């Protein structure tokens, strides 16, 4: 009896090891396939789990150990059963595409104007703005990177090319000379979504890399006695409100 008991304990330990290894394998597999905030299905006492964000339908048979003793001297039969059936999977774990149209003031709105944004994926937005910079029509276009998509407050980093400086000289009697200058600009800020996470308020600060042509013209005018009020700032600010005009829902594809 002591020998049979030791054999049973040895087999039981091996089963527990197999269950733990299976749990680790299933968990690692789910993380490799899809790592976006997983939801887990837990089953049996050994806490084997499967990421159900990957699979829209999962069937799991309970892990069970059946013991059967014919008599005191007969060996104990053990049956270990773990069954996982996967019926269909999602074709794309990314969230749906979005589009916005907004009004505001700042470089990415072309001065005072409008800005359109299309998000092909939730981390990146393609932006384009057109407006009036109090001297000429102006534009900007670039990319906006989202640090925490899906949150009500989303930090952003923006890189774009377009209008980033203007010199306007008023000679009097309606005689005005104005010129806009173009170059790259980078910025950081945040998007504040409403409670429905549809429309958003954008707040950003930009660092414009102004052209040498602008600086040469500016320095020349300063030397000849022109006074700029207000003077140029090393950074600019943006504020705007953007309305959701399109949102693609996430779809599942049967396989």
Major β-sheet strand ordering: 5-6-7-8-9-10-11-12
CATH class of the largest domain: Mainly Beta
Distance between the termini: 53 Å
- Give average pLDDT, whole number: 76
CATH architecture of the largest domain: Beta Barrel
Uncertain runs are 31-93
Major sheet size, sense and barrel closure: 8 strands, antiparallel, barrel
Count of helical regions: 2
Helix content: 10-25%
Spatial shape: elongated
Total tally of structural domains? 2
Task: Look at the helices and sheets and give the structural class.
Answer: alpha+beta
Q: Approximately how much beta-strand content do the residues carry?
A: over 45%
Order of helices and strands: HEEEEEEEEEEEHE
Q: What's the count of strands?
A: 12
Instruction: Give the CATH topology of the largest domain.
Output: Porin
**Rg value:** 32 Å
Give descriptors for this structure.
single chain; Porin; 2 domains; eight-stranded antiparallel beta barrel; two-stranded antiparallel ribbon; 12 strands
